[in-house]
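User: Last request for today: this protein with cobalt (II) ion, please.
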Amino acid sequence: MTTALRFPAGIDSERFLRDYWQRQPLLLPDALPPPTLDPEELAGLACEPEVESRLILGNETHGWRLRHGPFDEADFAALPARDWTLLVQDVDKWLPAFARLIDAFRFLPDWRIDDVMVSYAPEGGSVGPHIDSYDVFLLQLAGEREWRISDQRLTDPPLRDDSDPRVMRAFAADRQWRLRPGDLLYLPPGVPHWGIGRGDGCMTGSIGFRAPDGDELLAAASTWLSEHPRPRAPYHDPPLAGQAHPALLNEDAFLQLRGLLERALSLSDDELRAAFARRLTEPKPGFEPVPPRPALTRTAFVERLKQTGRLYRHPAARFLYYPRADGGATLWVDGEALETSALQWPLLRLLAGQALLELAELAPWLEEDDDTRLLHALYRRGIHAFEA
Ligand code: SIN
Ligand code: CO
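Assistant: Here's the final one, the structure of the complex with cobalt (II) ion:
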């Protein structure tokens, strides 16, 4: 069961996707009960070497300084009373309550979701005015933050040269709000924004999205080709006649080479779909699911599930599926494909739709071999586990 986002009156997820997503900012007051997080626990994460963390100190007058973690107690003890921010990436991968928070955003494609970053700031703490190249939902978790945004969309604004983080040289706010716990601000890419901690104990969660670019898709296609080799097509000379100079690349030879490359890159839609799906569902490096050891047999897995009563999805798992011509679907999870049948659509939607699966939801799917085989396959890959 998941908590839905509360949109402002007159807006639902369909209207949001049509009119706001990637287009314009939207404030959603009282959108979601925020997960609780003790600032000490966040600081503890920032002391771990596997966790990506940053401290940003400064203000508009003096500029901003960036330091990368891991940090230690002495670093925190030496901080001034105000004007600093601690940022911790991938909190959804470390804390189950933040993995479940993402369920509220699953009206958006799974593979577009990147991570939940959490910031902590005392009065005046900020990372400075900037733009991000990705979509982001900013959820106020605790305390208060003042958000200022500009209505201009920018791609490459001039930056301050006295600051390490990418801070805009000039920023003029067109709109301003003060967010309290549960309030949410959506910003599309390129909207200049500046969030400043107000009072003490401001904590903000940023649900960030990622988008592939052409280079990444080219890499996906070429990885696919290298793993699914086709008969090699060697170069053949075009009819050779009257070469003006031995070193000249003449137009016929160039066209021949270009045609060869185009044929080498031409993949069917099915192949491309698989190549993209594989790439887009690869787990973030460092967060790869680990198969359970020892693994349970399918029968033991079903028994254990009936006892424990729930399955937790690996926080870095990305699900993506598409229909097949035979009525079933190909489900990609963490770069690997699983085939599901036409009868398994409701199960597929359940599995791909939420981070926590309760026994009551799974019970109808524990009777048929095909269904338990699918559940067991995900468990054996480390995608689902009995503990968070
Ligand atoms: C913050 O949480 O302090 C900054 C998040 C952002 O501006 O993207
Ligand atoms: Co930002």
